[in-house]
Amino acid sequence: MPSLSEAFRAHPVYLHHKHSDFNSLQQKLPDSYAWTQPDSHAYADANSDNKTVPVIDLKDPNAANLIGHACRRWGVFQVVNHGVPLTLFTDIQRACLALFSLPLHQKLKAARSPDGVSGYGRAPISSFFPKLMWSECFTILDSPHHLFLQLWPQDHAKYSEIVKEYEAAMKELAAKLMCLVFASLGISKEDVKWAGPRGEFDGACAALHWNSYPSCPDPDRAMGLAAHTDSTLLTILQQNNVSGLQVLKEGEGWVAVPPLAGGLVVNIGDLLHILSNGLYPSVLHRVRVNRSWQRFSVAYLYGPPTNVEVSPNEKLVGPGRPCLYRSVSWKEYLGIKAKHFNKALSAVRISSAINGLFDVKEVQNDFHVG
After folding, report:
1. Taking a C-beta distance cutoff of 8 angstroms, is the pair 320, 21 a contact?
2. Of the candidates 208, 227, 235, which has an alpha carbon nearest to the alpha carbon of residue 303?
3. Residue 249 bridge partners (DSSP)
């Protein structure tokens, strides 16, 4: 079975921009980073109850139904009482701060190769946009030992252990969330062969993205991370106490997802959108930046074994609900995503009929380059 590293390497996304030292760009926003202000109607007032991303207590006996409701209406929710030790949040944020605080020349010792995935660099989606994003990221696939050795010759073991513990906790939580999502769809783990006999999802693959969004001299014209959907089943995001994440709510515009102490953001990815036959939308999301504060986040990108075919579950297909998508493996879909970006779901769609199903609105972003 090909690893996730091999799957990503089979479909490289080449980035041709040099890395920036954001410390030297604090006086004025360079034109290469300047995105014009979006129309005012693109913003939503996130203070009203009906425009707040749902928060779900995983100890609630009704958690599966609550998750189902959130997935249908939003494609994203936050979870509390999730079982992940809060000390791990502190540890992983401390590791992020340590990494992104290094001088640029030191970070570049662990730079992502031109056709690679792991290591330091720009957001992989950067190649789809003419303007640069005010962010930097560090991607971990498999063991981070070699990369951390370049960054911290003396302390690499300490940070490697933090990643190991964090990934183990995220893997366990992701399996729990998948079981709840399946239950909300009326699917049992027996209906999905790769789930395993006890719903342990042992063959699942994952990547870890560390993100940094430095303080910005002109945040209204900058973009931390442009609008996109994830190729995953689920993405589990931990963010520090600086706001910036926004999701596109159908009919309402961009809604903020504020940091929640001890909480985690969970968003639906393209593969779960396919598996649910369009019932659960893959949510468009983006990140805005801040004038005064640096934002950090850690994203756990979770998917099936790379060569397993994902298709609409047969229980979600019937006379009044046609099969909307063909089967596709994560490895193949990564290639489709690398070519078509936010129109990738259309590329695997086999039916134009919606029949009341919500289908993801394929919009790259509502910023206009100027």
Report:
1. no
2. 235
3. 253
> CA 364, CA 370: separation in Å to the nearest integer?
16
**Three-class SS state of 61:** coil
The torsion angles phi and psi of 82, rounded to 5 degrees, stand at: -95, -10
Q: Give the whole-angstrom CA distance, residue 133 versus residue 265.
A: 22
| Cα–Cα distance, 309 to 194 (Å, whole number) | 10
Q: What is the dihedral of CA 60, 167, 286, 266, to 10 degrees?
A: -10
Closest CA to 236 of 166, 174, 311: 174
Query: Which of 73, 122, 295, 326 does the annotation list as catalytic?
Result: 295
> Cβ(291)–Cβ(224) under 8 Å?
no
Q: Which of 121, 127, 99, 365 has its CA nearest to residue 223?
A: 365
Cβ-proximal residues to 193 (8 Å cutoff; 6+ apart), any chain = none
**43: helix, strand or coil:** strand
Q: Is 9 part of the annotated catalytic residue set?
A: no
Tell me how many helices (H) and strands (E) the chain has.
9, 14
How is residue 114 annotated by DSSP?
T
Q: What are phi and psi of 236, to 5 degrees?
A: -110, 120
Tens digit of pLDDT per residue, the chain (370 long)?
Answer: 455 555 455 555 555 567 788 888 888 899 999 997 543 334 444 444 457 999 999 999 999 999 999 999 999 999 999 999 999 999 999 999 999 999 999 999 999 887 778 999 998 888 889 899 999 999 999 889 999 999 999 999 999 999 999 999 999 999 999 999 999 999 987 888 888 777 778 789 999 999 999 999 999 999 999 999 999 999 999 999 999 999 999 888 999 999 999 999 999 999 999 999 999 999 999 999 999 999 999 999 999 998 899 999 999 998 888 999 999 999 999 999 989 999 999 999 997 654 444 344 443 333 433 3
Angle at alpha carbon of residue 75, lines to 289 and 269, rounded to 5°: 85
Give the separation between CA 237 and CA 246, rounded to whole angstroms. 13
